[in-house]
Structures are given as C-alpha cells and as structure tokens.
Amino acid sequence: MIQSKPIRSYKSIYFLGIGGIGMSAIARWFHVNGYQVAGYDKTPTRLTATLQEEGITIHFTDEVAEINESYKNPEDTLVVLTPAIPKDHTEWAYFRENGFTILKRSQVLGLLTEEMFLIAVAGTHGKTTTSSMVAHILKHSGKNVAAFLGGITQNYQTNFLLNEPTEQLRDVWCVVEADEFDRSFLTLHPDLAIVTSTDADHLDIYGSGEEVLKSFGDFVSQIKPDGTLFLRNGLPLINQTKAQIRTYSFEDGDYHVNNCRIADNRFKFSIVYPGGICEDISLMVPGFHNAENAVAAFAVCLKTGLSPEEIREGINTYRGVKRRFEYHLQHPEAVYIDDYAHHPSEVEAFLKSVKALYPDRKVTAIFQPHLFTRTRDFQEGFAESLSLADQIILLDIYPARELPIPGITSEIIFEKITSAEKIRCQKDDVLELLKTIPTEILVTIGAGDIDTLIDPIRSHLEDQITEKK
After folding, report:
1. Which of the ends of the chain has fewer CB neighbours closer than 10 A, N or C?
2. What gap in Å lies between CA 442 and CA 220, rounded to an integer?
3. Strand ordering across the sheet containing 192-195
4. Average pLDDT value for residue range 354-371
5. pTM of the complete model
6. Alpha-helical runs (H) found in 65-144
7. Is the pLDDT of residue 46 over 90?
8. How far apart are CA 73 and CA 95, in angstroms?
9. pLDDT value for 49
10. Which range, of 110-119, 189-198, 227-236, 370-379, averages the lowest pLDDT?
11. Buried (b) or exposed (e) across 163-177, using 16+ Cβ within 10 A?
C-alpha cells in the first residue's frame, strides 16, 4: 500500500468490489461529491444495478481492458479495495504494478471522517440497526448528517446519507458503522462511540475470542480523550479508553429500559437516563435486542444536544433496516419475517423476540449457516439458539469466501438441535417442502443467499391464503 495523498487531490476513484454494502456507500459519497467513479464486481446485484442507475460505471469481468482510460493515471486515481478480492485478481495486479495508490475501504473511510464530527457504532452484532437508528434520529431532528451504514434503511432506501454542503465539515455529524471484520474499525478516531457487543466472531481472522476483545480495546482507545464511549453494561472495556464512559443495556446501566410491553406488534417502553425518564417509546422494529439498541441510540443522541422529545419522535418513526426483523407478510393466517442473524447470540435474540410476539403460535425457522469456520466454532451455540423454534428447517452452509473444511457440514448443528421437529433440506427444495408442511409463523434466518428465497416464499404463502378463501 502507498501512503495516500489528501482525498481532494484525486479526480477519479476506482473500486475493486464496488457492490459490497460498505463499498457502495463510499462510492456514492464520491459520486455525489463530483468525483469520477467506476468499479468492478464479480456479479450483478440489485445494489450494483442501483449504482449504475445513479450514473456509476460498473463491469463484471476481471480484465484490464474493461478499465476506462480516465482511471489509468496513477497521479489522480485512487483505487479502493475490498478484502474479498482474491490475490490473483488481474485488475488488482495491474494497479499494484503501475504505482497506483490502493487503499482498503476502511482506510478511505478513516480519511473521509477525519474532518467531521464522528459517531462510530461498533459491535459484533447490533451495529447496523443502532447506527442507522442514530442517523435517522439526527436527520429527523434537522441535523446535518452524513452516514455510512451496513444495511439498506427502510426510511431512506439506502445505506448512505449525504450531508448538506457546508464550508465547515466539522459541523457535519458523521455516523459510521464501525466494522470489526479485518480490524477495519481501527482506522477511525471517533468523538462519540457505541460498543454493543464483543462476542467471539470472525475467528478465521482473529484466531480467538481474546483477540477479538483486544481489537475492541484498541478501537475504544482511539476515541478522542474529550469524547464519550457508550458501552453496553458489563463489557470489559472500561479501562481501555481515556474517554468518558456511560453504560447502557436493556435492564441496567446509566441508560436502560423501563416498563417494556408488547402491543399491536410493537415494543413499547420508557427509557431511564441520568436525570430523567423518556416515556411513550413505540418501536416499529420488534425485539428485546432492538429496544436495547434504541437505548444506545437515545444515549448518544442526547449527548449531541437533542432533547428527549426529539429523540423519542425519531425512534418512533424509525422503520428499520432491510433483513433485520423485516416483515414480508402479516396476515391472521400466516406471518413471515426475515432476519440477517448469523451468530448464535443474534439467532437467540431474534427467536426470543418472535416467541414473545407470538407466544401461542408455532414458529418454523429456516436457517442457513454462514461460513464453515463459524459453523465449526459455534456449533453448540447455533444448536441451542435454533432450538428455541418449534420447528427447524436447516440448510447447507453458505461458504462465502471460504473453502470447505473436512467434516464440517450443517449436520454438526442438526444433530444437536433439540426442537421436536427438525428437517435438513437443500435450499433449492425449500419451496417444495413448504407445500407439504403447515406453517403459522415462518422465519428465514442467515447472512448468505437465503434472501433469494424471500420473494418465492412470500408468494407461496399468499397463494395458500388465497386458496383457503
């Protein structure tokens, strides 16, 4: 990697892996700020199609000839790289061999956020919902906000919020989902930060849970000394930062939930904070875990100077993130919910919330494990959390960036599941299987390509409802 010049010295930005959720957000920032933007990705997706509709040039063949001449000048072209690009990638080799500045997405994000007031949200789970909630509350309250998020917000139908032009970037509130994968979040130096969780994950990168925790310690040590860390109560990071620390959680801490109840498929509660209580919170996105995320968002937004009333209005109008407790069908005879959960703690939080919403109805969960290493490392946790469902349909492992590991299949989870009804199934056979089993509350869970089943499953359930009429 070559040391980068200031961002403003570049004219053209070329992305290797432009279709990723985080990469696309940065591509959009450069595009709307007047830079030439183009890129490569392996396959077309809805996200790449959206970028192309916005005027960004993308190709899907790894060939140097596909790169436009305006991106072949090392002096004014910055190359942004995702870790998913393989080392033998032809275009990457071209840029390396010809003296281009090549930076990871995380390094570019660090450069972009240096001049703005940075709010960073980190955690092995909960960070996408919490960061998008913070961004929405600030924007809804009239703040000048830029946001780089890890999911498509339902309120704005994008993973990126663009700030209004200003001569002083310090006046911009920049909200960033701080990703621990590949230690990416260590390029950030926040003014305010939230840490939602530090569970062991990405052990293919870190090797151990201790190394994951150490990386989070390094992250919070980079919060500015006059800044504030909002830390989920009980996480062992208190001695790792010079910033002020405030704790939160669902049940206790400086900020916590009070009088939580379920009504009209919403979680309704109050938030207790130092010096007061904010009542009448009505969260459209269900879940005990999402109520806790709302507490974290409330705490950091209160620190920015918003009133409890402004924050309450923001939370109550927050519609969530795609694939995070996302309803696709709500009917008296059938309910279908999809969620991105891919860690045992996330699966547990999701299924406990579904069971709380529908305590007297049968919950059928279709789960696709994500990564061979994650399946190997957390097989007992997955089995225990999935056993909260009344019926489990378990798919094969989605490999993503990994090669198979001998002896590691979804069977090692399946054999440990204690639910009364459990079925192993190929992804391509799910629809045929659903035609043979009755379902009341159906959920799909996973971070792989299980989302390609969403539309077919919804159509199948709607057809069943129509046939019964």
Report:
1. C
2. 39
3. 160-161, 145-148, 173-178, 117-122, 192-195, 228-232, 244-248
4. 95
5. 0.83
6. 90-97, 105-113, 127-140
7. no
8. 10
9. 95
10. 110-119
11. beeeeebeebbbbbb
Find the length of the chain. 469
220-291-24 Cα angle (round to 5): 60
Show the 3-state SS of 160-202.
EECCCCCCCHHHCEEEEEECCHHHHHHHCCCCEEEECCCCCCC
Burial of 78-107, coded b for 16+ CB within 10 Å and e otherwise, reads bbbbbebbeeebebbeebeeeebbbbbbbb
Task: Count the neighbouring beta carbons within 10 Å of the beta carbon of residue 264.
Answer: 6
Structure tokens at 8: 């403003």
Quote the CA–CA distance of 172 and 445 in Å, as a whole number.
36
CA distance 345 to 323: 16
Query: Which SS3 state, helix, strand or coil, does residue 1 take?
Result: coil
Res 213 pLDDT > 60: yes
Distance CA(442)–CA(452), nearest Å, equals 16
- CA separation for the pair 399, 215 (Å, rounded): 25
Q: Walk me through the domains of the chain, giving residue ranges and CATH numbers.
A: 9-103 (3.40.50.720), 114-316 (3.40.1190.10), 326-468 (3.90.190.20)
How does pLDDT run across 386-427, given as a tens digit for each residue? Answer: 999 999 999 999 998 789 999 999 999 999 999 999 999 999
User: Quick one: CA dihedral 126, 315, 448, 378, positive or negative?
Assistant: positive
Give the CA distances from residue 234 to residues 108, 193, 195, in Å, rounded to whole numbers and listed in that order: 32, 16, 11
Distance CA 200, CA 212 (A): 6
Q: With helix as H, strand as E and coil as C, how does 25-43 read?
A: HHHHHHHHCCCEEEEECCC
Confirm if 110 and 183 have CB atoms less than 8 A apart.
no
Can you read off the two tokens belonging to residue 180? 């621990």
DSSP string, 192-246: EEEE-------HHHHSSHHHHHHHHHHHHHTS-TTSEEEEETT-S-GGG-SSEEE
The CA-CA-CA angle for residues 263, 315, 340, to 5°, reads 80
Give per-residue pLDDT as tens, 440-466: 999 999 999 999 999 999 999 999 988
Round to whole Å and give the CA distance between 40 and 277: 50
pLDDT confidence bin for 182, thresholds 50/70/90: confident
Residues 25, 56: Cα–Cα separation, whole Å: 12
| Residue 300, token pair as written in the block | 């950091």
